[in-house]
């Protein structure tokens, strides 16, 4: 790993990781834009992950989420999650913001993970905000809200919906404070998450991207490391914790 990255990370007062689907790719969870497997062959996530799609065909959307929940239930954190956890444990003020809904950062031991797009393990009611954990029900039966009797939906952020206020506020605070901003495994195409790197830049943070493929962020990042997250972060950890 480049020596100036290592030095900057070790001397930082605060570090932010923004992660996306690529960080879980090595755990066997397909990304949104690269994957051509299963439901991804037949359906465009941008057309399924909406309230309109759920209203029109709840069973189709529910089945897609149940398939993804099964993938998540079987998945284990990979070395990218583990290195981020280790950095958070060893260095001060390390914040993890994730667009992923799979809970793998938490499973790896990361603390106070900011879930920008919610968590697929949970359901919620659109009307009364009732929420429950769903991982015991991986069937095609869509549960009803015990209060409103309407269909429950996955507790994730769908296209066109606002980011949860707490997650948004915590992210902005963490990004404004950080000296080093890592963008790991995200296409940097989905806003407002993609805007966090710009906010970090305005606040003079070093921007480090880890992604085997170029993204809209790559050319403006201080370092664009074109490698899978697992090996790139393992290299970083080897230098940081000699
Ligand atoms: P995408 O699927 O758009 O992008 C995944 C990125 O991960 C791509 O840029 C890949 O090049 C990269 N990638 C693939 N394998 C990798 C690896 N092993 N290591 C590192 N990077 C790798 O996923 P996101 O950018 O996370 O939103 O997508 C953002 C949001 O769009 C998602 O949270 C979801 C989606 O629609 C909602 O559901 C609201």
Principal-axes shape call: elongated
Proportion in helices:
25-40%
Strand content: 15-25%
Number of strands: 9
Q: Which structural class best describes the helix and strand composition?
A: alpha/beta
Number of helices: 11
Strand order of the largest sheet: 3-2-1-7-8-9
Distance between the terminal alpha carbons, to the nearest Å? 13 Å
Rg, Cα atoms, Å: 18 Å
Describe the structure.
- By secondary structure, the protein is an alpha/beta fold.
- It has helices spanning 3-11, 22-25, 39-42, 45-48, 51-56, 58-74, 79-90, 104-108, 165-177, 195-202, 229-240, and strands at 15-19, 94-98, 114-115, 118-124, 131-133, 153-156, 180-184, 206-210, 223-225.
- The strands form two sheets. A six-stranded parallel β-sheet has the order 3-2-1-7-8-9, sandwiched between helices. Strands 5-4-6 form a three-stranded antiparallel β-sheet, with helices on one face.
- Strand 7 (180-184), helix 10 (195-202) and strand 8 (206-210) form a beta-alpha-beta unit.
- Helix 7 (79-90) packs parallel to helix 11 (229-240) and helix 9 (165-177) runs parallel beside helix 10 (195-202).
- The two termini are 13 Å apart.
- The structure holds 2'-O-acetyl adenosine-5-diphosphoribose (OAD).
- 2'-O-acetyl adenosine-5-diphosphoribose binds at residues 20-22, 25-26, 31-34, 45, 49, 99, 117, 157, 159, 185-187, 189-190, 210-213, 215, 228-229.
């Amino acid at each position: 790993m480049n020596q100036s990255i290592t030095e900057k990370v070790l001397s930082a007062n605060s570090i932010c990781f923004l992660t996306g689907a690529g960080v879980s790719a090595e755990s066997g969870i397909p990304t949104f834009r690269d994957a051509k497997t299963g439901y991804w062959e037949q359906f465009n996530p941008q057309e399924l992950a909406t309230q309109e799609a759920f209203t029109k065909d709840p069973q189709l959307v529910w089945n897609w989420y149940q398939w993804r929940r099964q993938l998540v239930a079987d998945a284990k954190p990979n070395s990218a999650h583990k290195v981020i956890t280790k950095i958070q444990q060893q260095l001060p003020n390390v914040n993890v913001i994730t667009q992923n809904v799979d809970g793998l950062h938490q499973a790896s031991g990361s603390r106070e993970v900011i879930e920008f797009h919610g968590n697929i393990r949970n359901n919620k009611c659109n009307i009364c905000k009732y929420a429950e954990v769903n991982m015991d029900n991986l069937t095609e039966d869509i549960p009803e809200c015990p209060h409103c009797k309407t269909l429950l939906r996955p507790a994730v952020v769908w296209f066109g919906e606002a980011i949860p206020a707490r997650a948004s506020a915590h992210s902005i605070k963490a990004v404004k404070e950080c000296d080093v901003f890592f963008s790991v495994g995200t296409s940097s195409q989905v806003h407002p998450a993609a805007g966090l790197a710009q906010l970090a830049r305005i606040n003079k943070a070093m921007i480090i991207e880890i992604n085997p493929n170029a993204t809209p962020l790559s050319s403006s990042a201080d370092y664009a490391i074109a490698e899978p997250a697992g090996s790139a972060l393992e290299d970083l950890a080897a230098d940081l914790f000699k």
